[in-house]
Amino acid sequence: MKVPRSVVCLSACWSSAIVGTSCAVQTTQLGRSPSTQPATRPGAAQPNASGPAFDLEGSDAKAIQIADAVMAKLGGRRAWDETRYIVWNFFGKRRHVWDKREGRVRIELDGPEGVPHVYVLNIDTQSGRAWKGGQAVTNPDELARMMDQAEAMWINDSYWLVMPYKLKDAGVTLKYLGEREMDGGRIADVLQLTFKDVGRTPNNKYHVYVAKDSGLVEQFDYYEHSDDPTPRISAPWRKWKRFGRIMLSGDRGERHGRPARLTDIAVPDELPESVFTNPEPIDLSQWEPAVQDR
Known about the structure:
Low-confidence stretches: 1-31, 33-45, 289-294
Largest sheet: 8 strands, antiparallel
Helix content: 10-25%
Number of strands: 15
Shape: globular
CATH architecture: Clam
């Protein structure tokens, strides 16, 4: 079955310069998020439609119920679909400005010798533009390589931020594993995510811990292979905050004795088109009133 190209993955390589090479790439139009839900009154329950190839038949009813409750707790499917822009810094390595509606992303980072690199990628077509030190990359082979890098970075980095919104993506099979203690002793319902006929590494597996007392995803375990006895990575999802109409978390505990944080998270209501056309560093401060927690 051919499904639209997009992302939903998690890489174990969170300390590498280019990550996303060891991840399950689910294809569920994460690049675009048009609202397909009917209007609902404030406070009303909202449907949480699954991806077009979500493994409904192979998933547990209880796991699906919990996934739907997580989406509602985060703000609801409609709020997620109608959120257009998301900005964040991935562990201090690079900044993303993601236009969900138009399926495009701008990525800024420091390349070799501190030379700034800017990528603007159309997620659906894998095409775009790139600049090094403000100079456009025009060599076709080099540009194609940089677009591949941009896709890998966005695939990985976005899933570290928005995984809880993707529990019912195309190709996902959800199973309920019961209650377990998280680090710290609190109790969580644990969902298992495996992947069916999708992705670069469909043998990945994730255990997602939904805290009983908060209803939020507060920990995950990543298994590189579905039959691995122990996870390659376990990390918390802490300090949930509301941004616009949705909630996001940036605290991933520590890695190699250092804080692991997604920082500078923002959800602007609007951004100028120049964000996706101008190679110069961008300043989002004038849109600050639209991106504060509220």
